[in-house]
Design brief:
The protein is an alpha+beta fold. The protein has two domains: 203 residues, Peroxisomal Thiolase, Chain A, domain 1; 124 residues, Thiolase/Chalcone synthase (Peroxisomal Thiolase, Chain A, domain 1). It contains twelve helices and 15 strands. It has a nine-stranded mixed beta sheet with strand order 5-4-6-7-1-8-15-14-13, sandwiched between helices. Strands 2-3 form a two-stranded antiparallel sheet. Strand 14 and strand 15 form a beta hairpin. The protein is globular and about 60 Å long. The mean pLDDT is 93.
Length: 382
């Protein structure tokens, strides 16, 4: 049985509202204990982010749900011609911030595309790798011949869990105890990193007749959860022994008072592991497919922060997989960290940049700090 080639024939994005500058962030997210953040300036200096997007207005009210943003990105793939939505045979939607636990994110997106047919829908869970898992599911379905045309998406609406109201009860409780009312760095750190938005790929078994396409050569993934404890987590509490205690084991009052529904990150564990483990996986993926790093024309690494740029660069050299900076293509500074959507957003910007020429090889790297998972892919312009 021969396997189909798989192509990305179009990409799209949707961002809610206007970009938010560093100086405006707390106007949207609010102040904890009515005081400016002490950590904000330090985090922003290290992460290099200048603008991001929030599906909020300055009153903290939601302007778009995650599903709405994702559906709008999917529509944009077809030039907002709703009649063409019936071409979709598979909808594969990855996110780490669904609007609800049930129904799944994917079927909520499908519900906002009523012009589409009754089709298979899949919703990979996870954090930054969720978008890549959605991409791989669509890739494998087309490659196996199950479907000929699929839409894969990556999206996030982090802002809903970053607003000050999520943290206020904990801050008030700390104040009553005469402790420092500032929220722990592992909780506040991510308030200054994350951004909202959605992006989509149109994937088929045939390249565009006119214009460029991206042939998907391979997609590889690896998890080190067998070795590493949780690093980025939500709806749970990290215990002294490194295990995660589910929010289901806490009372409703504790869930609020401990701000368990905020996103948290073990910064020490992150800095020790995220780059070294990612380098191991990348070298293995390149060797498996017989690709040398010097053959790569564009390197698209998803970085949560510009802090990791030189560390990734040095690790690539140490692993004999060096890629010079002039081949890197990132947009963290202008878009922020959009989690599962970030790699889609880089591919979209590059795809529509006018820079690509046939034969160019594009290497994608997506790390996920939740429990240290990584995804890699190689695309060829054709």
């Amino acid at each position: 049985m021969s396997l189909n080639s798989v192509y990305i024939t179009n990409t799209s994005v949707f961002f809610p509202n206007d970009p938010v500058s560093n100086d405006e962030m707390e106007e949207y997210l609010g102040y904890i204990d009515n005081k400016p953040s002490k950590s904000k300036r330090i985090v922003l200096r290290n992460n290099g982010i200048k603008n991001r997007f929030y599906a909020l207005n300055k009153e903290g009210k939601t302007t778009h749900t995650n599903a709405e943003m994702t559906a709008l990105a999917a529509r944009a793939l077809f030039g907002n011609d709703s009649s063409r939505l019936k071409e979709i045979e598979l909808l594969s939607c990855g996110t780490s911030s669904p609007d609800q636990m049930m129904p799944s994110h994917g079927v909520m997106v499908h519900g906002l595309l009523p012009e589409a047919a009754a089709i298979e829908v899949v919703s990979p869970a996870g954090v930054c790798c969720a978008g890549m898992h959605a991409f791989k599911y669509a890739y494998l379905a087309i490659k196996a011949g199950d479907v000929a045309k699929a839409v894969a998406t990556g999206s996030e609406r982090f802002s809903a869990s970053l607003v000050s109201s999520v943290f206020e009860d904990e801050a008030r409780q700390l104040k009553r105890l005469e402790e420092n009312p500032y929220i722990g760095f592992e909780k506040e750190f991510l308030r200054w990193m994350l951004s909202d938005g959605a992006s989509a790929f149109l994937m088929t078994d045939k390249p565009n007749e006119n214009g460029l396409s991206l042939r998907v050569e391979w997609i590889e993934g690896v998890s080190y959860a067998n070795e590493k404890e949780g690093c980025m987590y939500m709806a749970c509490e990290k215990m002294p022994d490194g295990t995660l205690k589910s929010y289901l084991e806490f009372s409703p009052e504790e869930i609020v008072n401990k701000s368990l529904l905020s996103i948290k990150q073990d910064v020490r564990l992150l800095s020790e592991n995220i780059v070294p483990l990612g380098g191991v996986g990348l070298k293995a993926a390149l060797e498996k497919h017989g690709i040398k790093s010097e053959e790569v024309d564009y390197f698209l690494p998803h970085m949560s922060s510009d802090f990791f740029r030189d560390k990734i660069f040095k690790r690539l050299i140490e692993n004999e997989t060096a890629i010079p900076y002039e081949k890197w293509f990132v947009n963290l500074t202008t878009l922020g960290n959009v989690g599962a959507a970030s790699v889609y957003l880089m591919v979209d910007e590059l795809f529509h940049s006018g820079k690509l020429k046939k034969g160019d090889k594009i290497l994608l790297l997506v790390p996920e700090s939740a429990r240290f998972s990584y995804m890699y892919s190689l695309l060829t312009v054709c």
